[in-house]
Amino acid sequence: MPDAQTAIRARRKLTNRLIAAHDAPRLRPHFTEDVVLIVGDGDLIQGAQAVVAAFAGQFADPAFIDYVRTPETVEVAADGARAAETGRWVGRWTGGVEMSGVYMAAWRCLRGQWQLERELYVTLRR
């Protein structure tokens, strides 16, 4: 079994691939039921179903390409139950349109699987 940092980085890589594939339903297992997401413009999305629906809406935009989140740090709590991830993100649309910034994510280990419980994205460049 991989260590927590390796597992979280692998889950992040997988969610990047699912977003690039525009596969909203397969994102669901990566979120806790009570996930809270603050998107780059400050809007709040609460609950896994709402987060997945927001992704599905984004994927319906024919110009949307992907979001790539690149972890810079992953720090695991001493008890191994939670972790904090920080990094940079980029969103891309056709025609060379990009937005980017920084993010912070809180992960929780439930039944041996790491799930996102909180995410905060800050847009720094449009």
Walk me through what this model shows.
The mean pLDDT is 97. Strand 3 (64-76) and strand 4 form a beta hairpin. The protein is globular. The protein has a six-stranded mixed beta sheet with strand order 2-1-6-5-4-3, covered by helices on one side. With 126 residues, the chain is α+β, with helices and mostly antiparallel strands. It is built from two helices and six strands. It has one domain: Nuclear Transport Factor 2, Chain: A (Roll), CATH 3.10.450.50. It has helices spanning 4-20, 48-59, and strands at 31-38, 44-46, 64-76, 82-93, 97-110, 113-125. Helices cover 23% and strands 50% of the residues.
Task: Give a summary of the structure in a few sentences.
With about 130 residues, the protein is α+β, with helices and mostly antiparallel strands. About 25% of the residues lie in helices and about 50% in strands. It has a single domain (about 5-125), classed as Roll (Nuclear Transport Factor 2, Chain: A), CATH 3.10.450.50.
**Residue share in β-strands:** over 45%
The main β sheet shows up as: 6 strands, mixed
Quick one: overall form? Answer: globular
Number of strands: 6
Structural class comes to alpha+beta
Q: Tell me the Rg in angstroms.
A: 14 Å
On the 0 to 100 scale, the average pLDDT is 97
Read across the widest sheet, the strand sequence of neighbours is 2-1-6-5-4-3
Q: Could you give the distance between the termini?
A: 40 Å
Overall number of domains: 1
